[in-house]
Amino acid sequence: MKLLHIDSSVLGPHSVSRQVSAAIVDRFRQATPSLDVVYRDLTQTPLAHLSGSHLAAAQGAPAPAELGPDLAASAAALEEFLAAEIVVIGAPMYNFTIPSQLKAWIDRILVAGKTFKYGAAGPEGLAGGKRVIVAISRGGYYGAGSPAAALEHLESYLRGVFGFMGIHNAEFIIADGIQVGPDHREKALAGALQAATSLHAA
């Protein structure tokens, strides 16, 4: 079984989402010692953001030589995703949505003919057999019914993206309020880590 582990926080060891995503992966390792884990840190090895040259190359136009390494990195990121049966993502909220590094990765895996296609009935997801678990950290409180709920564009975006690819049951472990104060941070982290260690991983 293959698991792809993605981290996108810029905070290194101080990151809540990194701690929780690592705990999720540890839970799967304990359940399946032979688990094949591929790790990608999007802050240490970032993917370039899309450009006109990228889009032209995707349509079959000749790619400039200098774009070669990035196209190879894009292909590798897509292959990692396609090969994985489980995908674990650490996703902190930055300015009400996902980090730009994570968006660059999504732009590499949301590919027509690979993870979705258009047919007579509209778009059809092609990656529905995967289990996706996202560790989210948010500085404030953005859950349904909260005063800031309308500013929540992280979980909602990721649900939409993975649903578009046919993954309609993505799981989310959320640590909310980590910037409200030390006590709130400690409580949110402890709750998220407990949820991670309690995951069904058989």
UniProtKB/TrEMBL annotation:
InterPro entries: Flavodoxin_fold, Flavoprotein-like_sf, FMN-dep_NADH:Q_OxRdtase_AzoR1, NADH:quinone_OxRdtase_FMN_depd
Protein encoded by which gene: azoR
Top-level taxonomic group: Bacteria
Residue ranges occupied by any Flavodoxin-like fold domain in the UniProt entry: 1-197
Designated name of the protein: FMN dependent NADH:quinone oxidoreductase
UniProt enzyme class: oxidoreductase
Pfam families: Flavodoxin_2
Family per similarity comment: Belongs to the azoreductase type 1 family.
